[in-house]
């Protein structure tokens, strides 16, 4: 890696942002730097020149475009953690400064996808392109797929990629850590493969969750989940409903499940689940009455 010790920390942060944008979005612009860091045009130009000095092959600039585009022959200057990258890409955190303001203890997530696999996917999402991946599934083992990705999903335990699977001709979720490789490809993307046509993603389901009848101290749950009148109301994308109910371990059976003391919560409005596709994830879900 290049020695960056002589560069001020404030400029390091901006150079790191340039590389982040190149690697995970495929491009950056001078106006991006100006807007994000509140600097002037001259300062932004100096940052770009400095990055070009450190990594002369990393980007190209067309006179007909305001964007600086990733060069295929590029080489990283900075190191990124997958959790940091995915959180920043999805707006869950601000730019990392590696500084803790108060004492804390956070368990690192076990699911830690490869940065080199994430980067082509995030570029494809940002630029609305296709990717080719080698994916390992429980049912069919290792296979090569062409996917039109449109979103990342974090279910509280691991990261998924949401996109259109051309092999199965449907939208689906893919566990990112099961991807063995990913690569950007030149392929036309059709309207029916885009996010606007993903019905499960675009449908919003309002869940109503209440304390399980067998839970001994329901008022504790009222406080823990900030319930109003004893009910937690949560709007969730249909594509994430199963994950949400599974994470909170909500009893979703037609009749109240008795004798299982680990249930703390119960789904109050089961009919809201009609049409949701991933109900196999919902604890004890046993269909609807005919």
TrEMBL record:
| Record domain DNA-binding transcriptional repressor CapW C-terminal dimerisation: where | 204-270
- Every copy of the DNA-binding transcriptional repressor CapW winged helix-turn-helix domain together lies at 13-89
Residue ranges constituting the WYL domain according to the UniProt record = 116-181
What's the superkingdom here? Bacteria
Pfam families per the record? Answer: BrxR_CTD, WHD_BrxR, WYL
InterPro entries tied to this protein: CapW-like (IPR016634), CapW_CTD (IPR059020), WHD_CapW (IPR059019), WYL_dom (IPR026881)
Task: State what protein this is by name.
Answer: Uncharacterized protein
């Amino acid at each position: 890696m290049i020695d960056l010790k002589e560069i001020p920390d404030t400029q390091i942060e901006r150079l790191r942002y340039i590389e982040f944008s190149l690697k995970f979005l495929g491009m950056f612009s001078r106006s991006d730097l100006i807007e994000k860091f509140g600097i002037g045009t001259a300062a932004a130009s100096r940052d770009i020149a400095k990055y070009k000095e450190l990594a002369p092959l990393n980007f190209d600039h067309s006179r007909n475009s305001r964007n600086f585009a990733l060069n295929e022959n590029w080489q990283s200057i900075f190191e990124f953690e997958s959790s940091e990258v995915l959180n920043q890409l999805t707006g869950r955190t601000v730019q990392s400064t590696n500084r803790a303001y108060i004492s804390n203890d956070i368990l690192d997530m076990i699911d830690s996808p490869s940065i080199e696999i994430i980067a082509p996917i995030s570029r494809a999402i940002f630029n609305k392109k296709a990717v080719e991946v080698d994916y390992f599934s429980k049912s069919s083992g290792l296979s090569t797929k062409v996917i039109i990705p449109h979103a990342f999903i974090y279910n509280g335990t691991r990261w998924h990629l949401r996109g259109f699977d051309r092999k199965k001709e449907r939208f689906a979720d893919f566990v990112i850590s099961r991807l063995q490789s990913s690569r950007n490809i030149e392929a036309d993307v059709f309207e029916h493969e885009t996010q606007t046509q993903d019905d499960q993603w675009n449908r919003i389901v309002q869940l109503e969750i209440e304390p399980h009848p067998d839970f001994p101290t329901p008022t504790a749950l009222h406080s823990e989940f900030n319930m109003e009148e004893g009910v937690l109301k949560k709007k969730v994308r249909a594509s994430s409903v199963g994950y949400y109910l599974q994470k909170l371990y909500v009893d979703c059976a037609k009749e109240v499940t008795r004798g299982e003391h680990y249930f703390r919560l119960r789904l109050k409005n089961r009919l809201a689940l009609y049409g949701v596709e991933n109900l196999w994830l919902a604890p004890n879900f046993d269909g609807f009455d005919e």
